[in-house]
Amino acid sequence: MKSNSIKKLTLLLLMLIATPSLFAHALWIETKAIGTKGKAQEISIYFGEFADNDITKADKWFSDLKDFTLVLVSPSKKETKLTSKALDNKYQAFFTPDEDGVYTIVMHHKVKDVYGTMVLDYNSSATVVVGNKTSGNYATANNNIIGLFSENADIAKKNANINVFALYEGASAKKQKVKVIAPNGWEKELWTNDKGEISFTPIWSGNYMVEFAYTEKTTGEHNGKKYDEIWKMATYLIAVK
Question: Would you say 233 and 212 are in contact if contact means Cβ atoms under 8 Å apart?
């Protein structure tokens, strides 16, 4: 009896330790915001804690996280599934633009294991401008359930206002909390307005991470295990000059 109690307590403590750690970590895409027609564009996918510059080695990603899907949406709405390969601290993929406009890169993965009673659902996206922005520059090119988008990410500059839209199920995510993380790890939480939009003014140059998380209270089974909520995270990186 005593032994079973100790085992249950140990399992509970492990869950309490592991779950916040998973929540602190995220998957995100890094790529140059401007591409060139006919030239290979590199895409990098990282997992870790952006605020702490803590990158998890590719061979240490938990569960089946490495089996994420990566899809390229061209300005003319053509979708292409991209193949990535593991490097030391990231996964890497490439595509070569063949038309002008905005390309959208979409990453998604629902983790196969249920943690406690929670399903973890990771999402990320990035946009690449080739030539001009006359086509493809719209938020719903990313068809993930949860997402973020900035129509001027390619010209983000220090001390200039940046607008970011949060979406959920293809609609504006109104009155939702969104986190912005600066290159030095400084964080600020903002609430979206009635258009699902936040605004911030970067005071440093470098990469800024925007995160939008939403927990859906719902019950079901995932890979044979019961759950009562799905935690969904979207990330969007903006390089500020």
Answer: yes
